[in-house]
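Example 9 (inverse folding). The structure is encoded as follows.
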């Protein structure tokens, strides 16, 4: 989550996906694919905290492009 929140306000478009992630985590618990309780609370809490941090962010650091790096490396590297 630190990586996502490091983008500051530039990460705001990712908030819906983060909310979907929380729903997915909770669905895993309901399907008994992941333990509930403290373990799920920790991972849900980390995402919720990231959402709060992103929503409160005022800075908008410049984003780095990976396009030029992928062109230099080529498809097989």
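The amino acid assigned to each position is listed next.
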């Amino acid at each position: 989550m630190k990586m996502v929140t490091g983008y500051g306000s530039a990460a705001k478009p990712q908030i819906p996906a983060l909310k979907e992630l929380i729903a997915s985590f909770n669905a895993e618990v309901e399907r008994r694919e992941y333990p509930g309780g403290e373990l799920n609370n920790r991972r849900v809490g980390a995402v919720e905290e990231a959402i709060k941090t992103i929503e409160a962010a005022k800075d908008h650091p410049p984003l780095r492009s990976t396009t030029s790096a992928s062109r230099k490396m080529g498809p097989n590297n």
